[in-house]
Amino acid sequence: xxxxxxxxxxxxxxxxxxxxxxxxxxxxxxxxxxxxxxxxxxxxxxxxxxxxxxxxxxxxxxxxxxxxxxxxxxxxxxxxxxxxxxxxxxxxxxxxxxxxxxxxxxxxxxxxxxxxxxxxxxxxxxxxxxxxxxxxxxxxxxxxxxxxxxxxxxxxxxxxxxxxxxxxxxxxxxxxxxxxxxxxxxxxxxxxxxxxxxxxxxxxxxxxxxxxxxxxxxxxxxxxxxxxxxxxxxxxxxxxxxxxxxxxxxxxxxxxxxxxxxxxxxxxxxxxxxxxxxxxxxxxxxxxxxxxxxxxxxxxxxxxxxxxxxxxxxxxxxxxxxxxxxxxxxxxxxxxxxxxxxxxxxxxxxxxxxxxxxxxxxxxxxxxxxxxxxxxxxxxxxxxxxxxxxxxxxxxxxxxxxxxxxxxxxxxxxxxxxxxxxxxxxxxxxxxxxxxxxxxxxxxxxxxxxxxxxxxxxxxxxxxxxxxxxxxxxxxxxxxxxxxxxxxxxxxxxxxxxxxxxxxxxxxxxxxxxxxxxxxxxxxxxxxxxxxxxxxxxxxxxxxxxxxxxxxxxxxxxxxxxxxxxxxxxxxxxxxxxxxxxxx
Length: 584
Fold this sequence. Notes:
Layout: E1 3-8, E2 11-16, H1 21-26, E3 51-54, E4 61-62, E5 73-75, H2 79-94, H3 110-117, E6 141-143, H4 153-161, E7 168-170, E8 177-179, H5 196-200, E9 206-208, H6 212-220, E10 225-230, H7 251-261, E11 265-268, H8 269-289, E12 296-297, H9 302-311, H10 325-341, E13 348-354, H11 358-364, E14 369-370, E15 373-374, E16 378-381, H12 382-391, H13 413-416, H14 423-437, E17 455-462, E18 465-473, H15 475-487, E19 494-498, H16 516-532, H17 542-552, H18 558-564, H19 574-583
Parallel strand pairs: 1-5, 10-11, 10-13, 12-19, 13-16, 18-19
Antiparallel strand pairs: 1-2, 3-4, 3-5, 6-9, 7-8, 14-15, 17-18
């Protein structure tokens, strides 16, 4: 690798050729201010807050887009640089709704941090912000244009990572805005409510819909029995907000925090992940033995489900009919658990802690309940749980560890790895292999399905039969796979698809600041959890075995079909009809 030598603020730096100034500065712990720059996105160079002075250049250069060269001398803190950065912040604040105290991102806003850093505490330019009304029409996301700084991060996440283009720039010059096609609400566009836009937004322009007050009200109601389930990815991301190292395993502290918040029972979504494997694995075996529709596609990720319903409804027969672990848990909680405890249904409140904004939409679907009653009453993202923990003043990193409750709190290592790309596939293969051959897979780890490539494929020998599988994450990659299926260029038996980069570890509801680097650390943590658990196969979970014996009968039984399976349907986008009307 060719290296170049330069100086930043008179400090010698060695960096690989092609490195941007902003990255070279970071290597010596200099944080050049920025808004549009994001380490996982291609260069935009829009905000110019990263302007630096380079010896021999008449104009300031953008540190996010300028590559280092041999002998370069960079200055990040000269008077002209500082004056430029302060001036840009003043201009941004003149067109910004600065109701910071009531903003969802208060204390976690990059613009707020920059204004504090540069002492822009009393903006003196005239306020020209038009304060457009926030869009709050879906269960998952709220878009507030008055907080937008036009950095373009959300557009890049939507277009480059997800291949959706539900967000775009409109107008020119000082009238430029970030908006949706035809300025429709997000759910009426191609948007899948995955929330990746909210994860990269530096301000409060796109945030999750906050449902914490519903949970607080339920916890304070003595007539309510409030239970909570926590997704596998939460335990390796929650600590980010409390000073723990990225990827730190905080399962025990999380359970304790939830009990201290007042939840009557704290259960584990890993239990329902094991249940999902029992049903989904049985469905795969049934299709293999009965010449079913192949490839079979997983159905755990709600952003992916929204995507296939909107963009590839003709391929819906390929989807597994199994509900997601969250929805399976809700169904069991409102039936089996209610029966076991004798608690009336109108007293039970089910809360889910998920790394995903689209889960809020999933829980609201009529298919995910019965008799007009939702199985999952409230979904909170990781970020909302962080708010609750801080609200009651818990010192999270100092909490004692505790265990999940029974009977819905026992989960296997297979359930734990559901939280990362490839995990659902590996968990399913462990069970399907043993069910078809009568022997445990050796080794139990299916290394071929692990990794961070957005499309992975592997051939697994089950008995004497080669089974070709694929693992896909991000919707841009899902589109590629769907096109291959449509073209008949796809001989896979089973395909796992997750909407978000890295799967749930990179979900749209995860802590702000999530990057691919932190996703990789969370992935490693989940595999470590699996490795250290005594129970590593879904079909050996004793609580799952008891559930089938006492209540469900067997996988794919009439009872399990009624509670744990569903069917999806085509969703027409409103702007398709608007376009047709204009043409006519």
